[in-house]
Design goal:
globular; 9 helices; single chain; seven-stranded mixed beta sheet; alpha/beta
Amino acid sequence: MSIDGVRILDSTTHSIFYIDELSNALKQIIREQLQGIWNGFSTTESLPEFYSYKNTLSSFLDRYNSKSDETKKGMIGELLSHILLSHQENNLTSLSILKNKEERSIKKGFDIIYCEIDNDKLWYSEVKSGGLNSSTTSSYNDVLLNKAKEGIQSMINENRNSLWESALFDVSATIKESDGRLNFQELLSNDSPIMTSEQSKNVILISVLYHNLADEIDINSVENFRNSVIAEGIFLDTIVISIQKATFLAVSDFLTNEISAV
């Protein structure tokens, strides 16, 4: 579905979201989704006053404001990834929350795990964000995508069962029992190192590039990057998503201003 201020070049294997402006429509989606993305939709519904919009803003900004610019870019990038992929017609349901369970820390483990509902197919995603340095737009975007590839590959190869244990906690916070929580948890547990020796996974590699949209990421470069990953044969299947926005500050400024408005 379309969002005012956001252009998308879309396919089943690779996509680019160009965020031309933080439009009123996009701001409203953030207002509606932030509590569920940060705390988990099931948790928020169970305790709506405790996990109110204002309390969620305070929790997010408390962690965000203490971080370096590099980490801030990453937090905003993951938030945008949650929002934009949930509004894409991709049949994916997020099983993850943005908030790390360790107080004031950034999220560790898999950034976002999705389930493709039609076939119970799990997708493990890694988000890498950054601003353009001296490279061309598309080549620096490739750098971010390559960091995402190496990051997710490293985590999968570690065969660390705690990564799946953390993901199972996220499912409890995100999915209600009546919406199939147990089924999602079974899928994840059966895909863990302790349950299967098959550790080749489906992955979604996500880059968030902060750079003036007068100089756009080229869709052909994103497709070529995916083709190169497929040729390596290290994952079962790969989807590549790139998001481009001029700056991360517009989002954080909006969230900061929201505190005084609610």
